[in-house]
């Protein structure tokens, strides 16, 4: 299991923007798995919504 220090290390190593980019991608991949493997479009849409929200945070983070 990962803890807060692991996340801090990831941010230090690749920037917060990089970590958010990966997190957004993971959300979209999770959505695709739910849609294809589990035929669960409602939960897939929820994961896509989270992916979009995280992507927007990343964009705002890139501005500063």
Give structural notes.
It is a single chain. By secondary structure, this protein is mainly α. The chain has a domain at 22-57. Helix content is 86%, strand content 0%. The chain has 3 helices and no strands. The protein has helices at residues 4-14, 16-37, 41-62. α1 crosses α2 and α2 packs antiparallel against α3. The longest helix is centred in the middle third of the chain and has 22 residues, at 16-37. It is flat and about 40 Å long. The protein starts with a helix and ends with a helix. The model has no long low-confidence stretch (mean pLDDT 93).
How would the blueprint of this fold be written?
Layout lengths: L3 H11 L1 H22 L3 H22 L2
Helix pairs in contact: 1-2, 2-3
């Amino acid at each position: 299991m990962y803890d807060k220090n692991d996340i801090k290390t990831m941010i230090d190593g690749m920037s917060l923007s990089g970590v958010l980019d990966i997190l957004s991608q993971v959300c979209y991949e999770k959505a695709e798995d739910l849609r294809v493997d589990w035929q669960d479009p409602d939960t897939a849409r929820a994961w896509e919504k989270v992916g979009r929200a995280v992507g927007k945070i990343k964009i705002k983070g890139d501005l500063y």
